[in-house]
Specification:
Distance between the termini: 4 Å
Number of helices: 18
Bound molecules: beta-D-glucopyranose
Structural class: alpha/beta
Shape: globular
Largest sheet: 6 strands, mixed
Amino acid sequence: MSKVWRLLVAASTMVVAGTTDTRAQQAPAVDMKAADARAAATVKQMTADEKVVLTHGIMPLPLGGPTPPIPSDAIAGAGYIPGIERLGVPALKETDASLGVSYVMGIRKDGATALPSGVAQAASWNPDLMYRGGAMIGSEARAKGFNVLLAGGVNLMRDPRNGRTFEYLAEDPLLSGILVGAAIRGIQSNNIISTIKHFALNGQETGRKYVDVKISEGAARESDLLAFQIGIEQGQPGSVMCAYNRVWGEQACANDWLLNKVLKGSWGYKGFVMSDWGAVPNIDAALKGLDQQSGEQLDPAVFFGDKLKDKAAADPAWKARLDDMNRRVLTAIYASGLDRSPVKAGGKIDFAANGAVAEEVAKQGIVLLKNNGALPLAKSAKSIAIIGGYADGGVLSGAGSSQVHGEGGPAVTRPIGGKGVWAGFIAQQYHRSSPMDAIQALAKDAKVTFRDGRYIADAVEKAKQSEVAIVFATQWTTEGLDVPDLSLPDGQDELIAAVAAANPNTIVVLETGGPVKMPWLDKVAGVIEAWYPGARGGPAIASVLFGDTNPSGRLPLTFPASEAQLPRPKLDGSDWVEPDFSGGPSSGSDKLTADYDIEGSDVGYRWFARQGAKPLFPFGHGLSYTTFESTGLKVKGLTASFTVKNTGKREGADVAQLYLVDRAGQAKRRLAGFQRVNLAAGASQNVSLTIDPRILADWKNGGWTMPAGEYTFALGKDAETLGTPVKVRMPAKTWKD
Ligand code: BGC
């Protein structure tokens, strides 16, 4: 991408008369170039033995089976790469993930602050808040002695049944890229490294190590890869973690096209590529662009140690590659200041202050999906029935490597059985933040009762006796296992329908990993999507219910009306049997294909627009307790300007959304810019957005192309509800990355 356009992209979320905190924009840029020069000098001083120190490492955990010796300075976490003392190079101490410092299958007991899930964070559409969240979790990683946070999960949500939807951000590349970039900047402001992951096209957990993604280069560049590209430009992560899946038959961690051609070639990335855990197929992955083998005891062999040293001794091409691998790891270390500002375990954590950050993220991420006027609830309510979702105890969290264990441990733990990569290591966990206590604290005089919802008749009875019934409905999701469909599990639909029939003032609070179907939607008075709301989810939910917080979250992904509307009505591999390599008889196969060319770059709302399908709730949807109007859209070149007005009676935040709707006579729906705006009642704000030209372009013939013609834009309340279209003529243009 040319320098001018790079600047335009960097400015793409600025408000001319800005109202928002601009910390995200002010974060010092990581100077990869200077770090790279220093790294090159260090590589010159390295011995042959030293050159295979930074290239591989263990998972410093007793996992069962043969465990390599765990060095005394390693901390229980996801990864450990020894340092080189002679050269002042610190060891890399790695922990998961994007929601906070993870608890590593229960081995860590020290507690950390859990941010709401990734999708909840993204529902804020607020880069500044992403930055603050990142800075907070990065500070906790640092205080616990970690200098690498395995964060930055930004796979596009191609399928809402993906078990890791909760960890990722959005279905749109612009939104995902800007938000992940801000989070990474926040994390790295602690002088630690953040990853961006999982590169790339890691769209489902079913058969995740085998699934082979087919997608044309153009479609990939305009969607999943664009999210990474923008995230890397804006966040400058020290490391990119490659993915488990295959792309065009090659493992993503040994994929020349992804790693050498796109990431390091076209994008000029200077940091290092680390593998996902157990994702390295062979030593040749080094030539394909992988720089570091992580969690090596999970791979078939330690490829990047002595074997690599031998190759380098015998072959100049391997030697050059090995030097480059070291240079890249060192570049990340120097750029993030790991050596200047060494981490030390035992730092103080201000859990109260950090909890407040998590609560603010939850408040801005909660989405008011439906309101017939029953919300906000009156604090003077006399009786409130709370039903289901363990809402007396806490709020649900998602599981897998990103699981955070809150201070004092979970409120509720429900063991789960059999299926999925993480089965046996995980349980359903509810963070210790009771919505019921928070509701009682706001509705002081109300008689608040709780029923767990297991017995519908009992819940109905309580609902009948109460002014308001609030049903907490949960959908637990985890890394390693996709959900079979978009229905709420365990008969919760029946429960909600029965309660709603008994009490017209029924509000549903959803704690879900992603979209769910709502067959009872017409019967309830209100629905809020609270996602997995993190360490302080209880007070955040109560605050929205009673109107202390005016809801401002917007859906970062489409809620389909049914699975039949998806590009793949049936998830690829849902009836596939994992291969058994133990030598025993196996009915499994390692052949599993995901055809992403069905939708191409038209992921999520773009697919719905292309099909003319009506979702349950569109991308970008979210209600408020006030009303907004966006008017006066003008587009001049790549600049769009307009005015947002709060036309209601109370303060609130709107998320202005600009969509491309037609390009040179061809319908095309793409989010072209967005801005969150806080407005007092009656106040208005001029907004100016600079459009990233890649959003308007196609990737073909090795570069970006914009056809000449009329480009039609519209402001949208969401991806479906669009205002007056505005046309602007654009010249033809082509350019390289
Ligand atoms: C996950 C990564 C994670 C790594 C280390 C893998 O299973 O896919 O996201 O960072 O484990 O825990």
